[in-house]
Amino acid sequence: LGAALEVCAAARDLGGLAWARELWTSALARESDLEPLQYGTFAKVLETYQQHEEVDDIIEAASGAAWLDHVQLCDFVNLAASRKDWRRAVDVWRLLVEGHGVEPNIIAYTAMSKVHMLSGRILEAAQILAEVDDGVLNGDCKAVIDRAQILVVAGHSSPTPDNMEQLRNAIKSGEKTIKETSSRHAAREWAKVKRAAQLLAGNIAVVKLKDVLVEWKAKTQSVMMTWPNYSGGTHYLGETQGETSDIPAADH
After folding, report:
1. CB atoms within 10 A of CB 211
2. Is 146:215 a contact under the CB 8 Å cutoff?
3. Of 4, 88, 135, 145, which sees the most CB atoms within 10 A?
C-alpha cells in the first residue's frame, strides 16, 4: 500500500489523487491493520495535491500517533517549498510543532528557512535559522551554506554593522564544517557564497543582486531571480517583504 501511495504522489495529476483515495478506502474497508507509516504516506499524498483541510483533519485525529514526527514535518514543509507556499509551511509547522509537540530537527529548520528564502522572505529565512543552536547548525553543511547565502543577501540589501557581523561570523564558523565534508557539491557552493560575501567588503553600491545570488536554489528556483537587479545598500528587502513577494521583473 505504501509503495502504491508513493506512486500516486509522484503522478502529480488528478488521476493519482483519485487512485490514492480508492486505495485508502479499500484498505479501510478491509479493516486491515494499517501501519503508522501508511497513514503518514496517505497524508503526504493529500498534501501533494493541496488537500489541506483533509490533511489537517487527519493530523488532528492522529494526535499522539507515531507517524506525527519530524520526518513528516519535513515532508510537508518541503512540499510547500516546492510551491513557494510559505503560508502553508507556517500553518503546518504550527499544527505539528506547536499543536502536537513534534520536535523539529536541523533538516526541518533548514526546510522551513528554504521555503521563506524561495519566496523572497530573506529576513524570515534568517530568523528561522537564528533559532537553531549554533553547534547543531554548524554540524550540517547544507544549513551552513543556506545561512551564509541568506545573510549575504541581507547584507547586500542593508549593510548595517550588525548584518555584516552576522555574515562574518557565519563564514568563519561554517568554514570548519565545509572543510570536514566530503561533498564536492557542498564545497563548490560554499566557495561561491564566500566569493559573494567578499564582494560586500568593497564598494557595495556597484554590487548587484545577481552578483550575490549564487547558491543554486536561490539563483535558479527563488522568486528573487525575477526581481530587479538591485544595487547594494538600497534596502530592497524592507521595501519588498510583505504579505506577498510579487516583485516585478526588470529589463536586463
Report:
1. 17
2. yes
3. 145
